[in-house]
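Task 17 of the worksheet. Students: predict the tertiary structure of the chain below and write it out as structure tokens. Keep your answer in the requested format; marks are given for formatting as well as content.
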Amino acid sequence: KQWYQRRVRGMEELQEELTNITISKKPKIEPVAVDPTAPESYKSNDAKEHEILQYAENFRRQFVHLYRDRKPLFLAPPNEFGVEKLVCTTLRPTLLPYKELYDWDGCAQFVSDYLSYMPLECPNELPENLYSPTEVLRRQKGNCFDFSTLLCSLLLGAGYDAYCVCGYATKEVTLMDQSRSQCPLLKKKDEVKEEKGKVKENKYDVKPPR
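Model answer:
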């Protein structure tokens, strides 16, 4: 009975600790890049953002306690100025004055052609920083997370209901290795040859009995 009471008391203390939200000022992280033209909202957080960050941190602690065997959450990584920003805050709906970027295909093609892909140092780990779409465009390079935030910002600006999802992909996809992929030009030629050799069936022909 005493063991049961101690266990219940311990669970109550743990519940109180996990549900307690304390707003404290975290140490300043050194900025990775300095862009004088960046807006002030990139360089600091207001009172509401600080409060939301504390709620997110409380949720992260509860998640770690309940699911210890899962990968850590990617909620509020520091940006290029060393300021913690939620991923949803990092996304900036952007509509550029180019007709090519008014649909999803044009946005994806622009991100693919304009940026240079930089693989993560450790493919199984999350990046230390999550740069803003403005910084990604300025650098003209980035990892898979930078690509996704920029593409998602463009799609949101064009009116799409876009989301960023963190997951895993094959080595060929992450490194853009297309050495084992079939050339689309050769594939078209093969399809044309098959169409020429194929006899068109007439739906009115009498079929033999089964």
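Marker's comment: The radius of gyration is 26 Å. Residues 105 and 155 are 10 Å apart (CA to CA).
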